[in-house]
Queue: 2 jobs
Job 1
Amino acid sequence: MKKISILGSTGSIGTQTLEVVRAYQKDLKVTALAAGSNIKLLEQQILEFKPNVVCVYDEEKAKELKDKLSYLKIPILSGMDGLIACATEREAEIVVGAVVGMIGIRPTIEAIKAKKDIALANKETLVTAGHLIMPLAEENKVALLPVDSEHSAIFQALHGENKKEVSKILLTASGGPFRGKTKEELKNIQVEDALKHPNWAMGRKITIDSSTMINKGLEVIEAKWLFDVDFEQIEVVIQPQSIIHSMVEYKDGAVIAQLGTPDMRLPIQYALFYPSRRPVEGERLDFTKIGKIDFCKPDMETFYGLRLAYEVGKKGGSMPTVFNAANEAAVAKFLNREISYLEIPEIIEYSLSKATWKENPTLEEILSIEQETYENINRKWN
Ligand SMILES: NC(=O)C1=CN([C@@H]2O[C@H](COP(=O)(O)OP(=O)(O)OC[C@H]3O[C@@H](n4cnc5c(N)ncnc54)[C@H](OP(=O)(O)O)[C@@H]3O)[C@@H](O)[C@H]2O)C=CC1
Ligand SMILES: CC(=O)[C@@H](O)[C@H](O)COP(=O)(O)O
Ligand SMILES: [Mn+2]
């Protein structure tokens, strides 16, 4: 029986992780659940999975839930301390990092220090703190298992192969709902338009990121950390049907890909049961029905957030943190209808122009760079 802690249990990845737990009740047991503020869903999850500890990040909501469920005698904590308590819950062997945003950095670091394996969906954590997380995981001998579909695909394509023989990673991208559009055509994009991903049902923030292709930019940096490759070795290829989840090209020209239906239960399950594979209920690929799979180059001028991601990745240091924090702030403003769609990459570019360079930022420095980035943005966009 593998014991798991889920950070972000009420979200898209969190609820799909719980579907996997439901399908494998004899093999998986949930020992901790954490969410932001959705206590209605969290209450149902607590009643069904009976964890040892719970966190609701929002203090007021935590108190409300605690009063309601006091008869259960399950500790219901709040804030960062609560999140860390869930990440380090004594019995948990693996922590599913499924919170959205760089709020995931501290609990991930603490989970690694507590020798928990990590099933990581929360890419913003690696983008901003990859230089701290990767050596820490090695030092503590914990496995960092990718959940992000492309990185799971790469991980699967690398399985059993010598990493030194990799020539490049072909990171596939759907291109989002606005693939093929010009900047002019993107001017009046509304929240509802950007929330229509062609292939995947996901949380709001990542769906907006996919539409701007900034998701792919974050994934380029995530791949650099997970697979220890240079940015020159990561090529983004548009594959509009999201059937090929990514590929690895080896020195001899052999290309190994992982394909599948767009269903996150597969990468979640692969991370939880690695190295074994278990059945996933649902549709299978039928190649005779698919007929053809298309490919093209990304348009990095219209979707220049992707170009900026390569640039900040190569610069390294504090730049990926500024990029990520600016994107988190801009997406929140767009979802709140405070800015236009094209202001998302503009805010990132502006933030990068204001940023001060710092090599190898510590955790405290990362968090203060994050705040500084928000302050710079709010001075101009409030
Ligand atoms: N969805 C997907 O298919 C994929 C997602 N990812 C990545 O996985 C991560 C999660 O994405 P997704 O599931 O779509 O996002 P959602 O927005 O659907 O879910 C986010 C989860 O995080 C919780 N949360 C937010 N803030 C806090 C906080 N301060 N403390 C504790 N919990 C918090 C939310 O709680 P509440 O509900 O209470 O707000 C919710 O449970 C992201 O980093 C994303 O990029 C990667 C690949 C695919
Ligand atoms: C499911 C997943 O991993 C997402 O990151 C998804 O791949 C987004 O797709 P695009 O960013 O390629 O549109
Ligand atoms: Mn992805």
Job 2
Amino acid sequence: MKVVLIGVGQAGGKVTQVLAEFDHEMGFDAIRGAFAVNTAKADLQSLDIDTMLIGQDRVKGHGVGGDNELGAEIMQDEATEVMDQLDARIATDAEAVMIVAGLGGGTGSGGAPALAKELNRVYDVPIYVLGILPGRNEGSLYQANAGRSLKTVIREADSALLIDNDAWRTSNETVQEGFENINKQIAQRVGLLLAAGEIVEGVGESVVDSSEIINTLRDGGIASLGYASAEAAPDASENVNTITSLARKSLLTGMSLPNAVDAEAALLVIAGQPDRISRKGVERARKWIEEETGSLQVRGGDFPLDSDRLAALVLLGGVERSQRVQEFMDRAREANQETESRDATEEFDNEQLDDLF
Ligand SMILES: Nc1nc2c(ncn2[C@@H]2O[C@H](COP(=O)(O)OP(=O)(O)OP(=O)(O)O)[C@@H](O)[C@H]2O)c(=O)[nH]1
């Protein structure tokens, strides 16, 4: 799927850059443009992609310090300038725009939904948000910010693909090492998904294309992405169990939102050499995903890749009813009550959280 990426805020810019690098190194060319917007000058200076500083008159290049209402306001005020810069970068063949942001901070948290609204007003292609949720040990401001941002993102974007910062964390690593590690994992998974809908070599009926990604995300709401890979035998007939267990591993232990398996729609992509991909294995894996997610719309497709390994990517659409998402919204609502005493007038999934704007 040909995509233009727009990173907003610190995490958004870093993840956008790592994704663009992964796509380039792998020679996929699915990412047709990468751009970073921030209120903090220093964060932009460390990036190699095109950048734009916003909110200079209000925060003098120092960031918004976790104030996501200010982040949203700045993006709304400077929407015209940002859109002008983007216009030059949104390739005419782009099939989607993906805004990338950490939802717990200020600039990305407030700016991402504001930008999604503006992009949706102007462009016909789907506008997705790749949103990073704060880990459990991050403070209540981060949780509350992410809850309000998420609620608004769901309203403004066509789908929110979420990454829980706790999802792939390993023990014994510093916060910084943790970010580097998780950013690489995001890049690999999201990068493969986007490329899967793009590669047309070895075309066969079973090769996945971008419309399947778009259709899986069509119903909106929250999406998540899982991944697992393993050595595979040269002969497809020996890989039936490998494929079913990769699908299980991907859904049960590899998702970007752990324990969120109830879904409206799913897409299973098996990546590897076509000769190694067992059709029987793929069919069984799809059936299993159907049962596990309770979704009747489980799409499937191959991603031909020259590797001795096989990998399973599972994209779930419409996971907002899952327990994990409810838990997060509970955490965000509690944090919101702790950090401010505003009245909650609207509800998202029965949780009392205000929209950002
Ligand atoms: N995965 C990941 N998360 C990050 C990274 N950097 C920050 N975060 C998370 O993003 C959230 C903070 O958002 P930032 O992007 O730092 O904040 P910002 O949007 O720049 O906003 P301000 O700094 O307030 O202007 C927190 O939940 C962090 O855990 C990163 O490199 N990778």
